[in-house]
Write a structure and sequence with these properties.
Structural class: mainly alpha
Oligomer: single chain
Radius of gyration: 11 Å
Shape: globular
Strand content: under 5%
């Protein structure tokens, strides 16, 4: 699975819990937006993370 910035932004926009976690990461660690997106991807999405299935669903063509 590959990190795609636009997909990650869409996932955060659609999920309130993930959006809150994104803001916390930026504040706690003083990260810029792009770095916080990548950190969130690696901690919550990649390698069987809690949000892997919704992230992958964003790549599926809509019927």
């Amino acid at each position: 699975m590959k990190y795609i910035k636009s997909q990650m932004q869409q996932l955060i926009k659609e999920n309130k819990e993930l959006h809150t976690r994104f803001k916390e990461l930026k504040a706690e660690h003083g990260l810029e937006k792009n770095n916080a997106l990548k950190a969130l991807y690696h901690s919550e999405v990649a390698d069987g993370g809690k949000y892997q299935v919704p992230y992958q669903a964003l790549t599926q063509p809509k019927k």
